[in-house]
Design a protein that fits this description.
It is built from four helices and ten strands; from the N terminus they run αββββαβββαββαβ. It has 207 residues and is an alpha+beta fold. The chain folds into three domains: 46 residues; 65 residues, 2-Layer Sandwich (wza like fold); 80 residues, Roll (Outer membrane lipoprotein wza fold like). The strands form three sheets. The chain has a five-stranded mixed β-sheet, covered by helices on one side. Strands 2-1-5 form a three-stranded antiparallel β-sheet, covered by helices on one side. It has a two-stranded antiparallel sheet with strand order 3-4. A hairpin with a 5-residue loop joins strand 6 and strand 7. The protein starts with a helix and ends with a strand. 17% of the residues are buried.
């Protein structure tokens, strides 16, 4: 009886050890999943820190515990914004983080330990234009690494479009360059060098 009892107890202890190990392993996996998920979400939500602010952009500037200094402001054509206490602040040519540092430093005269956040809510300065025989002419928001073909796909062609004679107008080095773009050849895989990355202010003309 004693040997049988010891045998039964041994089986019970082994079973409990197996169950405990399984739960701890599953718990470790769950903890790892929980710890990985916020990091993944944070990386997806993190905005680009190298965006350069330009005229016509819209900025939301928040100063912690200072509602009178928290505003949504447009960047004027001269590249400046107007803030309470600070008057004009140059914003164009800076990243949001750089502008945050400028505002923080200037606010120290009026606010103890100012905590400033700068967010770009409308990237109006990063625009290109499409005109001519297209369904939707006018400005298009310039997305990162946008090409001529991608911009044209947003604008669409009319039935009268001469897709072999499209060209891009770009101002650089004080002059306007005319860069050809043959849509029919590019979509066939020919002349991929014509499908260049766009820059702010580019104009695509579809004759």
């Amino acid at each position: 009886m004693r040997q049988g009892g010891k045998f039964a107890v041994g089986i019970w202890l082994a079973a409990m050890a197996t169950l405990t190990f399984g739960q701890s392993a599953d718990g470790g996996k769950a903890d790892a999943a929980k710890s990985d998920k916020p990091a993944e979400m944070a990386s997806q939500a993190e905005p680009s820190s190298d965006y350069v602010i330009g005229a016509d952009d819209v900025l939301h500037i928040s100063v912690w515990k200072e509602p009178d200094l928290t505003e949504t402001l447009p960047v004027r054509p001269d590249g400046k914004i107007s803030m309470p206490l600070l008057n004009d602040v140059a914003a164009a040519g800076l990243t949001p983080l750089q502008l945050r540092d400028v505002i923080t430093e200037r606010l120290r005269k009026y606010v103890t330990d100012p905590r400033v956040t700068v967010a770009v809510t409308a990237m109006n300065s990063r625009r290109i234009f499409v005109t001519g025989e297209v369904n939707h002419s006018g400005p298009i928001t310039l997305l990162p690494n946008m090409t001529v073909l991608q911009a044209i796909s947003q604008a669409g062609f009319t039935q009268f479009a001469n897709t072999k004679a499209i060209y891009l107008l770009r101002n650089q080095n004080g002059k306007q360059d005319r860069i050809p773009f043959n849509y029919k050849e590019v979509v066939k895989g020919n002349h991929p060098e014509q499908n260049i990355y766009l820059k702010p202010g580019d104009t695509i003309v579809v004759p």
